[in-house]
Amino acid sequence: MGEGDMRYGSRYTPNNGAASSRRPAAAGSRDLPLWLVLDCRHGRALFATPCPRRAAAATTSLGHDLVVWDPFTNEQRRLPRPSSPLAITGRGFNAAVLCAAGGGGGGCDHRSCHGGPFLVALIWSHSPSPFLPHLPGATSARVYSSDTGEWSDTTTVEHHDVFYYLEDRSPLPCRSVLVGDTLYFTWSSTHAFELRLGGGQRRLSIVYGPPRPPPLIESSSPIFMMSMGDDAVLRCVEVEPEDEKLCLRLRLRLWSRNVDDNGVAQWIRGRAIELEPLLPDGALQTPWIPSSVQLLGAVEGTDVIFVGTHSPDHPAAVYMVQLNSRRSRKVFDKCTSVVPYTSFCIPGIDAASTSEGAREGASSA
């Protein structure tokens, strides 16, 4: 986050030795002011960029353009704006990108699908009036196909708790998770939205998170969902006190969502990992305050998460944490979200994989 005209931006940041030795095609464009990274998946990155107000008002209430970028080939594709009506309330929208085969088509290992067909899922919420909470609001979704160059029909779910976890200076939330052929969008501290893409159908529904802590220590931060492997299981990680009455130490609590043969889902409470020993010495200055820790991102399909720490008298930092090995290292200074980007390159005959992280942060960082 920045100031003035540069209120926000993204930075493309190498994360390991292999990535540093192989710079992206647009090496001079690592800083992307007013480009907000929404998602990275299957070798592509998705951004929202402001579009001219007049042009946007003529076709849709969506005040941003969506751009898909391949960092290694520097290929950019600006998507056509969805047709009206898109009754988007303020900044209440998000989007995700994925290989078209990842949306139920199958037949792709996503190691070399650069330039291939892709999908972009757009989701937005709208409410009839903030002064009439008894009236139901709704959340809708549409899917863009690069094969057809068109947006799908709208799928909608009605509900009363239209709420966005958005700070005044934050343009929109930045987290989606792909599990099998289903996308999950984090929306608030209590629920997310599930968009099923398989079977040629687009179906949207609400998914509620695990039980939250008591009101005394409840955080307004959004639920943090992730996938950790190929088992098609949605998982959730929460920061919780070791003792709910005496908040002396913090830990990470893992949950997994189990769906039985009848389609009934429930959250299964998993292991706990004490947080302070997980980070370098001195990283957690206020280990008794839940709000001093933020979960900023996760590497999809792995056990890697990004943890941000801050306190009134201590500089902020972001650590990459491996939950299984319990190893961590500092990777960034202060930022508001981390969206990991992974790509596989095959130079000549030898195959080499590289991994880089795209993060949202201050333009001066």
Automatic annotation (TrEMBL):
<dbReference type="InterPro" id="IPR011043">
    <property type="entry name" value="Gal_Oxase/kelch_b-propeller"/>
</dbReference>
<feature type="region of interest" description="Disordered">
    <location>
        <begin position="1"/>
        <end position="25"/>
    </location>
</feature>
<protein>
    <recommendedName>
        <fullName>DUF1618 domain-containing protein</fullName>
    </recommendedName>
</protein>
